[in-house]
Structures are given as structure tokens and as C-alpha cells.
Amino acid sequence: MHILLKNRKLCFDNYRLKCSIGKRGITNKKREGDKKTPKGVFKFKKVLYRKDRISGLETKLKLIPIKQNMGWCDDINSKFYNKLIRFPSNKSSERLFRKDNIYNIIIVIDFNMSPIIKGKGSAIFIHLATKNYKPTQGCIALNIKDIRLLLKKISKKDKIKII
Question: Could you count the other beta carbons within 10 Å of the beta carbon of residue 27?
């Protein structure tokens, strides 16, 4: 299945889903911390989710419950850069177990993963949008109904094309 992100819409089959993207738009020269969503074609890797807040997810992707000690490393000097980590950690990283709801469901895409290039950008996910679809730090954000629909439809074979 072809999934296309264009003009803040995620398009596949007959669906056109509203989404938010990075605060500074889309780029083909993604850098760590630039608040831009990377342009390109990416596979879907796995789904991280808050088991205490989300139930009944239907997907062909691997489901991993988010625990309180989980994070994602964004430290360009770390060997764990752009990887799932456990706290406590002395590396710069983002907590995945958050008070707000945006990381209740995270679809990990394979941006900057094989190989990982330090400084190219980390933690590029599809996650839940805020009520007003506030721009992200570089991720793609959908409402809960739409992310559940996307999860039902995609598999590891599918890719997202961001233009």
C-alpha cells in the first residue's frame, strides 16, 4: 500500500487524514533539532504504546508497551543515538512515558536507522496530535481515530512517502 504525506494530509486508499508536521516544514536535509520533518520514503518499524491508556490496538506491526524507564536517545555523541534506551541515562534523551497524551501511541519509522548517521535527526515518529494539531518537533501527528485506522491498514511491507 502506498501512503503519501503531502500538504499536511496523510493519504492512502480513499482516506485523507489531517496531520501536523514539523514546526519548520519538510526538508531533505534533516538535522538534529531543526524542527523539520524529513522528506523521503520510510518503512514502518514497530509500535510503542501506553498499555495503561490504550487498549485494543489492531496492527500487523510489533507492539511494545512503553514503560516508565523508556526513552529515545538524541545525544549525537552517544553510541545509542536514535535508539530506544532505558533510564536512568546520562545521555540526552526524550522520555516516552509522558504526562501528556502525544506518546500514548508511537509508530517508529526507519528514518536515519540503517545506518544511523549522528546529527542527521532522531526520534522521528508518527504519534498522537494535540487537539489543535500543534506543529511537532519533526514528527508526524494524527488524531487517535486516524492513527488507529492507519495501524489497522499497514504492515512492515508498507512505506510512507513524505514529500
Answer: 18
Q: Give the cell for residue 19.
A: 496531520
Chain Cα centroid distance, residue 142: 10
Q: If DSSP codes are grouped into helix, strand and coil, which group holds residue 106?
A: strand
CA 45 to chain centre: 10
DSSP 133: -
Helix (H/G/I), strand (E/B), else coil: 146: helix
Alpha-carbon distance of 19 to 141, in angstroms, equals 5
Q: How far is CA 9 from each of CA 38, 106, 119, 128, 163, rounded to the nearest angstrom?
A: 15, 18, 27, 14, 11
- d(C-alpha 23, C-alpha 35), whole Å: 6
138 CA to centre of own chain: 9
Single-letter amino acid, residue 78: S
* pTM more than 0.90: yes
Residue 52 confidence class, pLDDT cut points 50, 70, 90? very high
